[in-house]
Amino acid sequence: MEIEPQSIPEVLLLKPKVFGDERGFFVETARETVLREAGIPPLVQHNQSRSGAGVLRGLHYQLVQPQGKLVRCARGRVFDVAVDVRRGSPWYGQWVGAVLDDVNHHQLWVPPGFAHGFVVLSPLADFCYLCSDYYHPPSEQGIRWDDPAIAIAWPPLPEGVTVQLSAKDQAAPTLAAQAAERLPVFTAAAP
Questions:
Q1: What is the homologous superfamily of the domain 2-19+45-176 according to CATH?
Q2: Of 105, 129, 134, 136, catalytic
């Protein structure tokens, strides 16, 4: 598996080897030793969502039991985003994005303390999350997907498709409007 640090070095793009022939393909999506060597902690919860074209989920993070997420698109195509929302981080307010699909089988490591979201670019997408901690609904937070200060370059959607948001995501504040106590704090890694 090839692992590439992104413009925010803690965010990693994982490119597994895909073995395919006329029957289909085989891909190893996670190996504990490889993930550990890359600095990814043990992953304790596996989630999957299914969404239609234009569905945008995010940008989400949680304060208690902050989750790192190793994400991939098992079916379809999405544009996936990680936004550094850690107060005091040198990358605060910056984002990394990648196309994840069932052809390239790439995965994105979204570290704890980052807001995460994706938009579906195909008619249907099955999206898988391996999480480093358990979901803690009372501490879940959100940031607006179209915050002009973050300026995520979301790709164009297919013709006739518009962004679809949950009521919770529609009501999310901008990063600047989010209360400081509702943002994680950056802690530098020990040398």
A1: Jelly Rolls (2.60.120.10)
A2: 129
